[in-house]
Amino acid sequence: xxxxxxxxxPALVExxxxxxxxxxxxxxxIIREHLxxxxxxxxxxxxxxxxxxxxxxxxxxxxxxxxxxxxMEIRKACADAIAHYLxxxxxxxxxxxxxxLDPQNIGASDIGVEAGL
Length: 117
Hints:
Blueprint: E1 3-8, H1 10-18, H2 20-35, E2 43-48, E3 58-65, H3 72-90, E4 94-101
Parallel strand pairs: 1-2, 3-4
Antiparallel strand pairs: 1-3
């Protein structure tokens, strides 16, 4: 159930849009390598910032279902891989926050062909 939201500063919206498919594929590969989610449960969204950004030019927030098999070290390695990839790809500042959610605190609903329904 990993959900990655990448908030993009106004100056990077166009450059990212031109390579969005490749970037999404690469990020998905990083997520699969480190977090090993069940196939089809991944979600990646690119969201443009609507104004002046305070902080890093790219903000990646990845939420996923916590489990004993995904230790803090694994989460940190995933966050580092995402940060290094984006920083190198776009030559910009990047902030990544990978947040593990307690499965007992998650309510979810998926509707549509993208969700495999």
